[in-house]
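INSTRUCTION: Work out how this chain folds

Fields: amino acid sequence; protein backbone structure tokens

Chain under study, with its fold:
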Amino acid sequence: MAHPFITLFVPHPHNNHKAKILWPKSIVILIGLFIMGRSIIDITIGLRPGVLGFAAQINPDKVIELTNIERLNAGVSIVKVNSSLNQAALAKAADMFENNYWAHISPTGTEPWYFITESGYKYKHAGENLARDFSNPTDVVKAWMASPTHRQNLLDDRYQEIGVAVMDGTINGVETTLVVQMFGSSQTSVSKIASSKVTNTVLAEEPTPVVQTVPAPEITPTLSPMDLSRVWSLAFVVLVLLALSLDWIFVFRYNIIRISGDTWAHLTFFAGLAIILLIIRQGIVL
């Protein structure tokens, strides 16, 4: 009698020369377990935000430092930290959590410039970059620089000052980290000057939010909700990929003939899925 593990993953006379995990009913069970696992993650996050112990390792000062490095590399003068723009960025992040949205303009029509003017900053030029679901400042700035529109905003030589806020909270039941970057150049006279406003958003594939920046988390971060979902998805693909690989090796080596699906085609498909999951480590640029 063959060991259950062997018949589960390896073609064998006791499983009709096809790993049991690749049987149609087994695939259905795997898909059911996959959906159930993802549902448990989503429900847990929704009922008990923060239960995963996730805290962003994104220091606003580091975001500013990396931004200025990119500006210097591009031959553009650095931007200086402005407390009013910091306050505006913080207010914008809090508003997104409070009103449950992920956009430059709120569902009520509030634009980014409202938060800037409310902070007392009188601007001549202003801009905003957004990011979410990133775990470190380097990847945030890299994502902005990888997008032509975000790069243009980040390297705009009209901007003289900057404010950045990082905030953890929940949007649409998903625990996430928002990074808000506000640029500005103040008015040089009391007369009204036409403003130039540029907005960009970076999506890293979002109860009561934590309305504060996170310069140095005190807890050791574990997997973020997004990372946990990705790990669960990757585990599913790797499991099936392993079974298909073993199946293909044994069929090729022992010249097993059977009427079934093309193992090589299945193997290629799941290998593609695994590669995609590995490549998409962070968010998506909108």
